[in-house]
Structures are given as structure tokens and as C-alpha cells.
Design the sequence.
């Protein structure tokens, strides 16, 4: 029983540490690029693409509507903290993005904006939301279009 409690506490400490890392990384990016939320702009030959990196919650709320559950055709809000991004009704005033495509098991585990954008080639995306990394159990990329 004590072993289970220790394991649960260790997992919670790890989750808080990872969340803190991404919050600090986002704050560092904000101050480095003039406070542009947690997005970066990339230029391409034909359009400007905006990439949002986020670590969606590994758990869901009572309605199961965190971004990690989003599918093509769903809409997402745009909260201050990207970790709080949720699926919302597309007719709702908080809808900010439409999911054009969901890429499960992406071809890369590289946790970068460029790797996520490469997974969305061939779509008319202007932003991405992703969970990538060699230690991620269920990596995915959401190819998004701003509404």
C-alpha cells in the first residue's frame, strides 16, 4: 500500500515538474520574442504559419474535452495557458481554431515546431498543437486553421 502511495506521489511530482518546465519555457519564449503568447511565426514560400506548442493534460475533465481528445472537424478555444486548450462547439464564441487533421503516431518524435509543421504538410493549416517526444506514450499533432 505504501509503495502505491509513493508511486502516485512520484508521478504527481513528475507531472508538476513537466508542467512547470513548459510554463517556464513559454515565459522565456514570451520575453525573448516580445510577449507574443506561446506562438512563433514561421515564413514559408507561400504563406505564414503559426505554430502553438502545448502539452495537453494527460487526463480529461468531466466532459473529456481537452485538446488531446480533438478530432478533425472539432474546434478548440485559445486560452491564456495552452495546457488548458479544450474542444468547444464550433458555434461558440470561444472557438478559435478548427482541427483540419489529427496525426496520430507521427513520423517523428522530435518535439519542435518544425517537426509538427512537417506533419501537416498538404493541409491548409496555419497553426499546430502537438504532443511529441520519445518518452510520450501517445504522440499526436493537430493541424489547425484559425477561425
Sequence:
Amino acid at each position: 500500500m505504501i509503495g502505491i502511495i509513493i508511486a502516485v506521489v512520484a508521478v504527481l511530482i513528475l507531472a508538476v515538474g513537466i508542467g512547470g518546465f513548459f510554463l517556464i519555457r513559454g515565459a522565456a519564449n514570451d520575453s525573448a520574442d516580445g510577449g507574443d503568447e506561446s506562438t512563433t511565426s514561421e515564413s514559408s514560400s507561400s504563406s505564414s504559419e503559426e505554430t502553438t506548442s502545448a502539452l495537453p493534460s494527460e487526463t480529461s475533465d468531466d466532459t473529456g474535452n481537452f485538446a488531446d481528445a480533438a478530432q478533425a472537424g472539432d474546434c478548440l478555444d485559445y486560452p491564456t495557458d495552452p495546457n488548458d486548450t479544450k474542444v468547444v462547439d464550433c458555434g461558440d464564441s470561444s472557438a478559435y481554431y478548427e482541427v483540419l487533421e489529427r496525426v496520430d503516431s507521427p513520423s517523428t518524435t522530435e518535439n519542435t515546431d518544425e517537426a509538427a509543421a512537417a506533419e501537416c504538410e498538404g493541409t491548409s493549416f496555419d497553426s499546430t498543437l502537438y504532443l511529441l517526444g520519445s518518452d510520450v506514450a501517445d504522440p499526436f499533432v493537430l493541424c489547425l486553421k484559425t477561425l
About this structure: The longest helix spans residues 2-32. The beta strands are 39-43, 48-52, 75-76, 87-88, 97-104, 127-131, 140-146. The chain has two helices and seven strands.
